[in-house]
Amino acid sequence: MTMRAVAIYRSASFSPGRHRSNDAAIMDATVNRLLHRGWRIERLGETDVEAGIVPPAELYLNMCQGSNASEALLEIEHRGALMINRPSSVLRCHRHRLVPVLVESGLPFPATVVGPPRTLQHAAGALWGESLWVKRGDVHAQEAADVVRTDRAELAGALAAFGDRGIRQVAIQEHVPGRIVKFYGVGAGQLFHAFFEDGAPLDPASPVHGTLRQLAITAADAVGLGVFGGDAALGDAGGPILIDLNDWPSFAPIRDVAARAIAALAESVATTRSIR
Known about the structure:
Strand order of the largest sheet: 2-1-3-4
Order of helices and strands: EHEHEHEHHEEEHEEEHEEH
Helix content: 25-40%
Distance between the termini: 23 Å
Largest sheet: 4 strands, parallel
Number of helices: 8
CATH architecture of the largest domain: 3-Layer(aba) Sandwich
Shape: globular
Number of domains: 3
CATH class of the largest domain: Alpha Beta
């Protein structure tokens, strides 16, 4: 039996800068892997989904990040369609939903308050430290101004700048000292890759790698993601602290390996009807 999949590409508005070509490239690489294995693939964009163009398939490869396309896909998810990633999980990655999920999970995550930018400054009094991060509260960063570091003296101005841009929800987060490590993951550990901001890999044999791997997989499971990425801080003491989690990153440094893993996950999901 020939398997049919629909590959839904992320809108360029949610792929700022170099991510635009990289996001398309990881989907292309995954699609090519499945085509080589005999799948039939139809390619769509977020605007197609928003317009109601979603043909039937055994599996949907979903890179949508916008609310409109994700909400349009919810009906298909609720009918039992197999999706990587499910739109309900993508919507839970929007920060105003993600923060409560991660806090409730009990995972190490910096104290964060979320709300309208013009009314949130008082709530920041509950956060520790002079250095804070202000982040867009819905989708992940679309431009550099969506994630800014500030101190308390400049917080009001930073919040006002978000409000002036029409952003309705922001997150204020404590700054976590430590070296930043980025990670990519597929499934429940079928692929996990972690590296520092300068591109140096985190030693897979190190204890911190194993701790971070478990932290990332647990966080992704709490949100419901099969393909995920994120950031963590490695402080001088204690284990890694999760800073961010996102759905279907570009996997640019390991694109070929990631495409192989995602294609294998797709075949497993289509066979077992389960992401995990």
